[in-house]
Amino acid sequence: MSDMQTIREEHHGGLDLRELEPLGLSPDHVLDLSSNVLSVVHPRSVRQAAADAAFADYPDRDSNQLKHCLAVRHSVPQESLLIGNGCSELIHLLAETVLAANDKVLVLGPTFSEYQRASQLQGARVQQVMASQPQDFAESVEQLEHPLQSEAIALVWICNPNNPTGHLLSRSTLQTLATSHPQTTFAIDESYIDFAENAESMIGCGLQNVIVLRSLTKSHALAGVRLGYAVGAPDRMSQMTDRRVPWTVSAVAQAVGRAVLEQQSHYDAAMLKLQGCKQRMLAGLRERGFQPLDSSVGFVLVPVDDGTAFRLNLLRQGVAVRDCDSFGLPQYVRIAVQDDAATGRLLAALDGAGSAGVPVAECTATRTDWDSEFRDQLHQLFRMRRDVRHFQRTALPVGAMKRLIDTACTAPSVGLSQPWRFVSVNDQSTRKQVEQDFYSQNQLAARQYNGQAQQQYLQLKLQGIRDAPEQLAVFVQQDPDQGKGLGRQTMPETVAYSVVAAIQNFWLAARAEGIGVGWVSIVDPQRTKAVLGVPASWQLIAYLCVGYPSTQATLTPELEQKNWEQRQDAQAFWSESIQGQLRRALAITGDKPR
């Protein structure tokens, strides 16, 4: 009994509210890269399935409809399947079914600690067979052969692809191993196999001593629902069923499980996108001096000096990664891949936390070899620049605003006048005055519209000025000494245009880091100048709200989504002749020629 008392629950991925509260962090404002879940927006049919689930009644304890969908997917009989409340339930259920006190268990590591814990709770003796660090922890089943041949082994746990290393073993390798030791049960956890390209599952291998575990939690982003399944010989599934707790798989989980399988192509597309995001994250880490291990899946293992301290540093910046103490790797962290916005926020946090080993490499001024992938990403960045209206209140990483201002100041300016002036509005009482002016001006603006247009206007929730953690007033110095007046004699307004170019630089740089910007134009410029106490010669160009968006970015602007206005095709604004351009412009505006 004393040995059993030392077996404690491990904290795996995901946010720990008990840790966040002392740091003053809300879970809504933390980017969670500690758990390996597919980054995807669920289709409407999946969300509707969750809403329509009959949760007032007891669920089908055998999940028969979901089991049928999975049987079709894997071409196996339904009797070969057991549905569980995530893989964690099935890991413990499998250990309870297979093991007796003092049985010997092998775990191919470093890997998920729950295999060892589940085995020890059954009184089994566990031996970790660790892969070699100099070989980047590439697992080799040859390491298992000696203990398998020298004593009776009841159970072998193999995670494939492995967590946290991301290494993948071939089906033929595993099949040869299991065939050679028919008296030993091999538990093959394939929770991450959908993330790996060209991976072959052990499902359908035909071996009685193999039980495969799969997770929809990871591959279909159902962490809050919890859904996994085991596949094996019908008699083994029957034995596990006899030991389960009834009704662990809710009606909501069963309905959502069926719905995601019906939309498999949607999740396949998200997996494909994730591969590109992973390469960009790896590149960003390497640029900062890190040496992430190669990985076949949607997470990477990164060596650091102290995993616990590294994780805490990033958490203070609003980004959660997984330290690897529970894997026996205290000098590593595991980082999940999400979308490019998440990667931008991670890299910004790394820069802010001072965790990088080397400064980011600077491109030379003479570079001309941008490849097509870079150009595609750049054009996508232009298209996905958005005027953000809804912000998280999470503070930006230390140094983020300085980086963005530095980038803004690389903009072209007439006569190299650099007429931009940036003022951070941090004082809460000052912000309150600006906010009050905004709301009074907003009510005046609403009166300009009638009927449906007025209703549409009032439904646009322009609350960024209240929620954004950073606010920035951008001014133009209207007649700067710098530049000596070059280029301004006939068009003095070009100094203001230069400031607009700087704002665009700022905006795109922010978007590349996953940071949103909202341009608040519904303020009184003179009142704003008075509130901020800036020189009389400064003219307000923009009041910007800056922070992490609370909604996912889309290619379609919000105003277009809400039918406020539709974007015209670019060809409507361009012509190779003056006459053609004039005709098009008049057609758009409805004006008459002079």
Number of domains: 3
CATH superfamily of the largest domain: Type I PLP-dependent aspartate aminotransferase-like (Major domain)
What general form does the structure show? elongated
CATH class of the largest domain: Alpha Beta
Radius of gyration: 29 Å
Distance between the ends? 96 Å
CATH topology of the largest domain: Aspartate Aminotransferase, domain 2
**Spans with pLDDT under 50 lasting ≥5 residues?**
1-5, 354-367
How are the strands of the biggest sheet laid out side by side? 2-8-7-6-5-3-4
Structure write-up:
With 594 residues, the protein is an alpha/beta fold. It folds into three domains: 45-262, 3-Layer(aba) Sandwich (Aspartate Aminotransferase, domain 2); 266-353, Aspartate Aminotransferase, domain 1; 372-563, NADH Oxidase, CATH 3.40.109. The protein has 23 helices and 16 strands. The strands form four sheets. Strands 2-8-7-6-5-3-4 form a seven-stranded mixed sheet, with helices on both faces. α5 (86-98) packs parallel to α6, α5 packs across α10 and α16 crosses α20 (494-512). The N and C termini lie far apart (96 Å).
Layout: helices, strands, pairs:
Elements: H1 2-5, H2 17-20, E1 31-32, H3 44-52, H4 64-74, E2 81-84, H5 86-98, E3 104-109, H6 114-120, E4 125-130, H7 142-150, E5 155-159, H8 171-180, E6 185-189, E7 210-215, H9 216-219, E8 228-231, H10 234-243, H11 251-262, H12 264-287, E9 299-303, H13 307-316, E10 319-320, E11 322-323, E12 332-336, H14 340-353, H15 372-383, H16 400-408, E13 420-424, H17 428-446, H18 451-459, H19 464-467, E14 470-477, H20 494-512, E15 516-520, H21 525-532, E16 538-547, H22 558-561, H23 578-589
